[in-house]
Specification:
single chain, 101 residues, mainly beta, four-stranded antiparallel β-sheet, two-stranded antiparallel sheet, 6 strands, KIB1-4 beta-propeller domain-containing protein
């Protein structure tokens, strides 16, 4: 299965020629599947951001990350055994130096 990112929600994106970012082929971990994607998240609003990471969560225990700015991007795959993971969503959040109550 191959994935691409496409910015459909950007108001300045071209409707006739949208930007499509190809992602490397997915690698399926043993005992997992990559056919059903349940959640995708990006760490930045721009794929050109040097630190932009895409996370893909699948139905089951696999979670995959890809850093887009690498010259030869590839997936880093994790198997998460905790059953709570299966119904959770993956999101990125800014890092804060201090928490306020």
């Amino acid at each position: 299965m191959s994935l691409r990112l496409q910015d459909d929600l950007n108001p300045v994106a071209s409707a006739t020629d949208p930007k499509r970012i190809p992602l490397p082929p997915l690698v399926t971990l043993p005992g997992c599947q990559t056919q059903i994607v349940t959640n995708v998240s990006m760490s930045s609003s721009s794929s050109e951001d040097e630190d932009c990471v895409v996370a893909v969560k699948f139905l089951g225990p696999q979670l995959s990350f890809c850093r887009l700015a690498q010259s030869n991007p590839e997936w880093i795959n994790m198997r998460i055994e905790n059953p709570c993971f299966f119904s959770s969503r993956v999101t990125f959040a800014e890092k804060y130096d201090m928490l306020e109550h």
